[in-house]
Amino acid sequence: MKRTLMIVAIAIFSVALVFAAGEQETGPKKGQYVIKTGIGYNDQSLQYKTLEFMKAHLEEATDGVVTMELYHSSTLGDDLAILEGLQLGTVEMFCGTIGPAAQWSNAVKLFDLPFLFTSYEEVDALLDGPVGQEVLDSLKPAGMVGIGYWENGFRQLTNSKRPVESPEDMVGLKLRTMPTPVPLAFFKMLGANPTPMNFGEVFTALQQGVVDGQENPWETILANKFYEVQKYATNTGHVYSPFGVLFSQKFWDKLPAEYQEEVREAVFAARDFNRTSAREAEQAILAELGKYMEITILTPEEIKPFQEMTRPVYDQFAEEIGPELVQKAVDFLANL
Q1: Does residue 159 form part of some domain?
Q2: Could you report the per-residue pLDDT of 265-304, keeping only the tens digit for each?
Q3: Which of 66, 7, 59, 62 is nearest to 32 (CA)?
Q4: Which residue from 102, 134, 146, 265 has the least number of CB within 10 angstroms?
Q5: Do 86 and 69 lie in a common domain?
Q6: Phi, psi of 50, deg, nearest 5
Q7: Which residues make Cβ contacts (< 8 Å) with residue 131, sequence separation at least 6?
Q8: Which of the 8 DSSP states describes residue 77?
Q9: Is 23 within the bounds of a domain?
């Protein structure tokens, strides 16, 4: 009897081991979910360092079940190509300038309106609140899941012709802008000749004199060495251009809820690292650029004429962007 019971016990134990092994095989494995993403900037940029921060945070939080593959310097294409990759499911994540997403949602053009924001406090309050989420959610029909925003920064002006101290100095300047309609419109109001161009082409275009200048955040100007082909810079701060953090709906739907939450947490942790790093570094970046460029720092009073001349663009594009969304954003910021 004892021998029979022992045989039965061993059999039960063996079955349990087999069952447990089967359970282990069907559970989550390291590297089971891979997030591939790429950016246009190089690997020295804060945008790339933010991706590295997110990668480390996420892979530790998920014990390597969710991993990230990072590419820089337009290896996977420009921002538009990455956005199209989200739709196709060939790329899992986008974290570039959100402007090109206007191809699928006019609501994105809200952030192209000139002088919408006047401080980082306004930026954070609106982007992290319901208005910012409404813009992200407008991309759902295009197969994109919007999680949040990272810092790209206030866009500043550089050129190779002359210092820009007033709107009159803008007249005739041929400026590279993002390939979106709102910047084209308000730069024309200032008398400039805006020229849409993908980011990867900008340095060469400046070097060859195809365009006189460009507009980007200070960090981008330094990281991409635009100072080598530009002599003058001005803190116009005409647009705050956020990086939108989006995921492919096809990928997101395959990701278990617990890992969706971990991805969200990693995006937000990286956002905080990103914003803090960018803002702490701003004065040092300006000082470094000042070694190579003549920088004009405009006062709020000196910026007002630029604001007044470009204000009509709000009425021009309100219907296209969404009158309620534009008004909601303006009212929200006015009441902070």
Answers
A1: yes
A2: 999 999 999 999 999 999 999 999 999 999 999 999 999 9
A3: 66
A4: 265
A5: yes
A6: -70, -40
A7: 325, 328, 329, 332
A8: -
A9: no
For 152, other C-beta atoms within 10 Å of its C-beta total 27
* Adjacent-strand bridge partners of 245: 148
Q: Work out how many domains the chain is built from and give that number.
A: 2
Q: Which two tokens stand for residue 150?
A: 């990272």
Q: Which amino acid is at 55?
A: K
Parallel/antiparallel/unpaired status of strands 243-248 and 66-71: unpaired
* Letter string b/e over residues 1-40, b meaning 16 or more CB atoms within 10 A of that residue's CB: eeeeeeeeeeeeeeeeeeeeeeeeeeeeeeebbebbbbbb
Token pair belonging to 14: 């063996």
Query: Which residues touch 82 (CB under 8 Å, ≥6 apart)?
Result: 37, 38, 76, 91, 94, 96
Residue type, 32: Q
| Tens-place pLDDT, residues 171-230 | 999 999 987 889 999 999 999 999 999 888 999 999 999 999 999 999 889 988 999 999
* CA angle (236, 115, 224) in 5-degree steps: 45
